[in-house]
Amino acid sequence: MARVLILDDELEILRLVADELRRNGHDPVAVRTPQLALEILNIPCNQFDLILCDVVMPNKNGIDFVKEVQRMPWFEGEVAIMSSYASMLNKEINEAGVKHVLKKPFTVDGLMIMMVPFTTIAS
Q1: pLDDT of residue 123
Q2: pLDDT class of 122 with cuts at 50, 70, 90
Q3: Nearest to 50, CA basis, from 37, 39, 59
Q4: Distances (CA, A) of 81 to 44, 52, 56, 85, 122
Q5: 87 within some domain
């Protein structure tokens, strides 16, 4: 199963995603700010298979956060974006190297379908 860093400023979404991932055998770490996520990621031994990131957040948007993460030489995982604006941001999402998009509002089933490529990853 996958180790997942979840970044969303909405506490309800953060809890829902973390709880569902945990219930399905994944190892989630949930944070509400890009600053805290970057602090966690700047510790090279903190490896994540996936970062699941909201786009619209205070102080730094998810696309800028993803671009910063992609410059970290030790980050070898993948990034997924959660957004209700994904179709409007398609070009920016692609340019940031994001391969997975979870469109809000999403269902638990939609979340688990997105996680299928990560179910065989050993944490």
Answers
A1: 42
A2: very low
A3: 37
A4: 22, 6, 10, 10, 22
A5: yes
**Is 123 within the bounds of a domain?**
no
Q: Is residue 113 part of a domain?
A: yes
In a domain, 15, yes or no: yes
**pLDDT tens-place string over residues 56-88:** 888 888 999 999 998 888 888 999 999 887 666
pLDDT digits (tens, 9 = 90+) for 3-26: 999 999 999 999 999 999 999 999
- Give the CATH number, domain containing residue 83: 3.40.50.2300
- Count how many domains the chain has: 1
The pairing of beta strand 100-103 with beta strand 3-7? unpaired
pTM of the model: 0.89
- Which structural domain, as residue segments, surrounds residue 65? 3-118
